[in-house]
Every structure is written in structure tokens, then in C-alpha cells.
Amino acid sequence: MPRKLNRRPPSRNIAQKILIACEGSKTEPIYFNSIRNELRSSTLDIIVLPHQNKTDPRSIIERLIEERQQRTDNQQWSKDDMAWAVFDGDEHIEKSLENWQSAINRATSQKINLAITNPCFELWYLIHFQDHFAQINRDRLVNLLGKHILNYDKSMCLYPKPLKSLTEQAIQRAEKMAKQIERNELSEHSNPCCSGLPKLISILLSLKNS
Asked: Left if phi > 0, otherwise alpha if psi is -120 to 50, otherwise beta: which for 151?
């Protein structure tokens, strides 16, 4: 009787990994995981890290550095891979400016890319539907978003529908907000802003056919 061969399953040849550490436990992970599922790229690996109950900016940066180092030690990280930290601005800046500045400096020194929304990630959702240039708090923002997304909830999956077809408009609106901040000589992460997020999304979508 011929011996049965134990064949190994074919391994994926992953060309690029994008490691994303999020502040939120629902909204951001659901959004980025939905993009990953939609891309269906055979060579792209987007890893969304759980935040382990520490959501201040400095802890998110340290979590990301730790994960990257672990992957480097295991030879699972290359020079073309990217690490992104995604977190909000308003409450962290108000709560501890020291922690905030420490996180920004640490990310810069460790070549961690930043995607910061102020006041919160829902602003990114809102500008898929309309411009917004005035300072805004979370409650007002969610109310505005509710005009476009009925019964909005943080655990809703909004990608690909309804956001995918509106993503390019959101990127353009975020860039207009950044130009306004520059014109007014404000801090890059002033309220309102989606700093860095258009770049991250553009990178992800450009890898669609990789």
C-alpha cells in the first residue's frame, strides 16, 4: 500500500505588513478589519492590535513598539513594513498634555506613523458626507453623523457600505481641514482634524491589487 504523503498547506507570501494599534475597542478595529476583508489582498497583512485596556496615547505607542520589536526578533518584520497608531485628540490633550506630548515625541523618535482624529474617530465618518471646519465636541459630532447614518452605533460596520464609495471625498475633505489648520497657524492636531488618517487610508487602498 503506497505511503500517504503529509503535505504542508501552501504558505502565504506576505509582501508587506501594516500594523495598526487603535485606541477604540469597537469603532476603529471594525473599520480597519472591514477594509482588510474588502481588499482581499494575498500579499498584504493588516494587523489590528487590541489595546489591552490602556487607551492613553503613550500606552498605545508603547504597545505598538513592543509588538514591532517582537516581530523583528522573530524575523517577521521587514524594512518596508509600517506601524501606525490611531487615537483621538480632545480628551487626551485636556487630561494630560504631558502624556500627549510624550506620546507624539516617542512616536516620532521610533518612526511610528500617527493617524489622529480630534475630537474622535467619528469625525472621519462624518466627512464622508459633508465638510466640517468648526470646533466640535463628541456629542454634537454624533448627532450630526446621525443625520447621515440612521441609529448610529459604535459597533456598526460601515465599510464597504455606505463609506467605500465616499472615501475619496473624505480624503479630500480631511486635506482641506489640514490646510485650514495650517492657514490659521494652529497645532496639527487641533479640533477638528483627521491628521494622518487620509495617508493611512490611501496607502491601504493603493495596495488593493497587490
From this structure: left
pLDDT digits (tens, 9 = 90+) for 107-141: 999 999 999 999 999 999 999 999 999 999 999 99
Beta bridge partners of 48: 20
Residues 6+ apart with CB under 8 A from 27: 121, 122, 154, 155
User: Which amino acid makes up residue 99?
Assistant: N
pTM (2 d.p.): 0.90
Residues 6+ apart with CB under 8 A from 88: 23, 116, 117, 118, 119, 120, 121
Adjacent-strand bridge partners of 82 = 18
**Residues 123, 115: contact at Cβ < 8 Å?**
no
193-195: strand order across its sheet: 44-49, 16-22, 82-88, 113-118, 193-195
In angstroms, the CA 199 to CA 196 distance is 5
Evaluate whether 59 touches 30 at the Cβ level (below 8 Å).
no
